[in-house]
Amino acid sequence: MGWQAKNIKLSYAGAKILPLTDSVFIKYNAFKKQFGEDGSIVVIGVKSEKIFQKETYNKWVQLSNELQKLNGIKGVLSIGKFFELQKDTLHQKFTVKPLPGKTITTDVEMDSLKSKLNQLPFYKGLLYNTESNATLMAVTFDQKILNSAARNPILKEIEEKALAFGKSEGIDVHLSGLPYIRTATSKLVSNEFVLFLGLSILVSALILVIFFRSFSAVFYPILVVIMGVVWSIGTLVLFGYEITILTGLIPPLIVIIGIPNSILLLNKYHNELKKHGDKQRAWQITVERISVTTLIANVTAAIGFGVLYFTGSELLMQFGSVAALNVMFTWLMSLCLIPAIFSYLPAPKNKINGTHKANFLDKILTKTDHLVQQKSATIYLVTIILTLVSLIGVYRINVNGYVVDDLPKSSKILTDLKFFEKNFEGILPLEISVNTKRKNGVMSVSTLNKIDKMEEMIAAYPEFSRSISLNTGLKYATQVFYNSDTNFYRLPSDFEKNFILIYAANSGKGNGDMLTNFVDKPKQTARVSFQMADIGSKRLDQVLLELKPRIDSILSPKRFDVTLTGSSIIFSKGTDYLLEHLFESIGLAIVLISLLRLAQFKSLGIMFISLLPNIVPLIITAGLMGFFGIPLKPSTILIFTIAFGLASDQTIYFLTRYQQELNLTNYSVSKVITDTITETGVSMTHIALILFFGFGIFTASTFGGTVILGFLLSITLIVALIFNLTLLPTLMLWLDKNKKRKKISEAEVAKNLENLDDH
């Protein structure tokens, strides 16, 4: 696994949330196959009046030319590197004249070029904003290297050159675009991968030191979970997966979830040593009795992850399957290696025939038992009130996801994105394909006018930029046909169209590229491209709902097949998809874990009752999200299935001990409840604290979603502990108070108590 793990790679593609079979994703892939990648542009933006001073402008031109020469860059478009169409009446074609074409040496030349730019409406709102003096440079990547590590050094060089320009001119430079955002995010994921792995090991080591105060009891469990980490990374490679924002969390999760296995084994081992001091016998009994309990606990944890596989989302399938498998691998390694290693080590002398002194935790558990025995009505009432209040919060939950909202508000990625949203209505791609359902259907003037009407309607929304399409190209060509008169920046008439298209057809490959990018070969389907702000999935859904009937009123569905797609829509639909399948995955986890409990305890009553201490904490967590304005989005949706699986572990620990003592003694149900709370409650609390502080490390993340994930998981597991030590025993007391039990002799009771699993 170590050999495989060295081949792990970071993912540079966008998160694949939607399944490959989803209709929205199928349409998106069909669009990319027809017209190419939609998110291939990096933009560099500045806002300064100096940009039209000849010295600064010449440096902007130089920057544009330098970036154009970089390997992997397909093209650069800016006010320092744009083109002007000119009419060649002799050959009946358009020629492309690069501007500025030379170094600007005088203010008169600068004013002339600026005037020329203002006479080209094609570029207005695309490359510059006349109101704010903002301008941008669009750098288009070669699609062959777009989603690979090869783009990293190119992006780094682009960033260095852009920032060097800004420094030399004293101008703030802003960079954005999907390739830039994804690369910067991948870099943060890489950094946090190392950070969280280190923090998880450190926190686990500190907890082991507090619990055992022994070098060997710290070193060897840590060694085992590190092996589990190696296995998890090796598994990712073997499955052909890469490190994403989610799979990057698996190694620290393996550490956090794997350490309790060692603690349970060592606790039981030390307890056995206190009884008889025989190391060999102590380990034999430990393995016999802890293996089943930890097996079931780890299976429930694995179910919490594994059900994510059935969402159909590639992102969650990768995370869920690898996490579930390696939870079980790590459990198996702990069960095999910890006893084997410690059987060679000397038994700790302070544990042999030792005595236990009541501590603060023991006193809290004693009071908890009193509450269960004497105040059951209070527990029920508090549970009902908390649940009802939380349901109000659940009703207020906002389902909303942003492309970059997991980044802190102070992040340069976010502030740069806001710059482009303020000055150019954003940089996230929204693509529209208009299928006319007939060959050459796009070239009809009537169709072009309808598409133009649709473009104007969409561009009127403040969330969208002006469009780029065949229409904008034809408007520019019409203007040039009429000697660059801005009054003729419009679509050609049916009569004019024939002349203009003849000019375009004779213009060679340069203009053919434009047609290829925005019209398919049969001229049946047209592409319209917008840039948009990161408005969130909720607002985007509303806008798309509004647009659908308005587009249909312009382009009748009987004659046209209009598809809205692009990375923005894929992300929005991914958020909706995850929410839709959240309830399915939680429902599946509940069913599987319930069946596991039914198989273990063979009681329908226990199966149903034991669900409440696990479900109520999830409702409370969802309520907190509603009250504190934490939206449901891809990063926070995971909380519920993971928390349910881990909270179920605590229920297993309690019920296993309770059922054992109930079956092996003559004690009353009340006495058995007391013993279970005061004895098993210690291990339950220890494990809950490990998970609390373990998941707490994720609050150190740069990503807001990961911070919330860590915080809410920690809170949920502590709340689950409280309900498993209060509500669960109260319900069991009610369920079994009249239960008939066979009498067992005092000698058998004594023998059973000696052998009872008291981890």
Automatic annotation (TrEMBL):
Family annotation (InterPro entries): MMPL_dom, Mycobact_MmpL, SSD
Gene3D superfamilies: Multidrug efflux transporter AcrB transmembrane domain (1.20.1640.10)
TM annotation in the entry: 193-212, 219-239, 245-266, 287-310, 322-345, 377-397, 581-599, 611-630, 636-656, 677-701, 707-735
Keyword Lipoprotein on entry: no
Primary site of residence: membrane
Domain SSD: 222-344, 606-734
Entry's localization field: Cell membrane
Membrane topology: Multi-pass membrane protein
Pfam families membership: MMPL
Key word DNA damage present: no
Recorded superkingdom: Bacteria
Keywords for this protein: Cell membrane, Membrane, Transmembrane, Transmembrane helix
Name the UniProt record assigns to this protein: Efflux RND transporter permease subunit
